[in-house]
Amino acid sequence: MHKGVILLVKEKNREDAKTSIQEFMSNKQENTIDWWEIGGRWMGLLDDYKPYKDDSQFITCSLCNGTGLSNENDKKNTNLCTNCNGLGKKLPYTLTEHKNDIMLLKDCIEKVKGYGMSMEDKAELYWEKMLNAKKRRDKKDTLSAYYAGKYNICRYDTFGTESDVYDIEKTVHKIPDDITDYWAGIIDFHF
Ligand SMILES: [Zn+2]
Q1: d(CA 91, CA 87)
Q2: pLDDT of residue 158
Q3: Measured distance CA(4)–CA(12) in Å, rounded
Q4: Nearest in space to 16 (alpha carbons), one of 188, 183, 186
Q5: How many angstroms does the Cα of residue 96 sit away from the middle of ligand 1?
Q6: Who surrounds ion ligand 1 at CB < 5 A?
Q7: Of residues 141 and 102, which shows the higher confidence score?
């Protein structure tokens, strides 16, 4: 599964923020995360950038050579190329890195505040789901244990698959009161 998480880090500039984020994610990778990148599916989340509206992200479709037709040599065949839906161009598998996937927290604070759920609220939600699962009293009720596990993660404030916004300085799921020199980075990870 893919998961988008915003990491918060206190650094002097974007380059240092990027390095800190990369080090943090590389250290976490050993456990549950098998793959990660800056941006990814969440590219542009912090500054409302839409890669699919940016022409510079596109490459010429290799199947139709940019013609958009299913058979470029047959002029009577007007069927559209199935690889690019007739556009003649495609977004590549790996997009060009978007600078503002790491930006000053003060410049994207509303986005960060609006992203995801607090760990306290998540914990309550999983507790409710656990109780509901138990009420069903199925012979093999493993769902309640599943939700109890998620409740555990939220209560211990552990970084991982439940994380939405995480401060890697203070190791908490909370936006700091003083956001001076803080950077936000949007990460796509797979687990
Ligand atoms: Zn094509």
Answers
A1: 11
A2: 86
A3: 24
A4: 183
A5: 20
A6: 61, 63-64, 81, 83-84
A7: 102
